[in-house]
Design brief:
Length: about 170
């Protein structure tokens, strides 16, 4: 009985310690990864591959929820995404990057749902699509552009249904 208890304790200890250790280097070979600015009452967890995040120290119903900054990285060490969690849900502006570090998209969230503007970009940095959301549903104007920046299609949405287009 004692060996299994010892193994379980060791496993739990490694689960809690390992993410913090991995947060110091990335997959590209030991280059330092910036520490997150975690709000009071939270601590940084995770790793460069799966994402670094702040998590509340006090568990809610036995679960430690993400709260505060988040960042993930590509295998080459460049940032893949960054944003914020509020009480376990994506919130505010999130930015997404390709492996070269170029912005591929920006999305506003509230309560884990798209809420606000969502923009996806071409490799040349010009917008590919601009959408407006409210509580996870498309509401407002959706614009699609060609790679040279010309408006190709525009539609208006209400409650995730297209109501007008040109």
């Amino acid at each position: 009985m004692l060996p299994s208890k010892l193994i379980r304790t060791f496993t739990i200890g490694m689960t809690l310690v390992a993410p913090t250790a991995f947060a110091q280097s990335n997959a590209a070979g030991g280059e330092a990864v910036a520490k997150l600015q975690c709000p009071a009452g939270t601590k940084q967890f995770g790793n460069a591959k799966d994402g670094l995040f702040c998590r509340k120290i006090e568990a809610k119903d036995g679960v430690h929820v993400p709260h505060g900054s988040y960042a993930s990285y590509h295998p080459n060490g460049k940032k893949s995404s960054e944003g914020q969690y509020v009480d376990g849900f994506r919130s505010g502006l999130w930015t997404f990057y390709d492996e070269a570090g170029q912005v591929t998209g920006r999305t506003e969230f509230e309560g884990g749902n798209y809420h606000g503007k969502r923009v996806q970009y071409f490799a040349n940095g010009k917008p590919r699509i601009i959408e407006e959301f409210s509580k996870g549903k498309r509401n407002g104007v959706v614009q699609e552009f060609s790679e040279d920046g010309k408006l190709v299609r525009q539609a208006r949405y209400q409650d995730d249904r297209e109501v007008a287009a040109k």
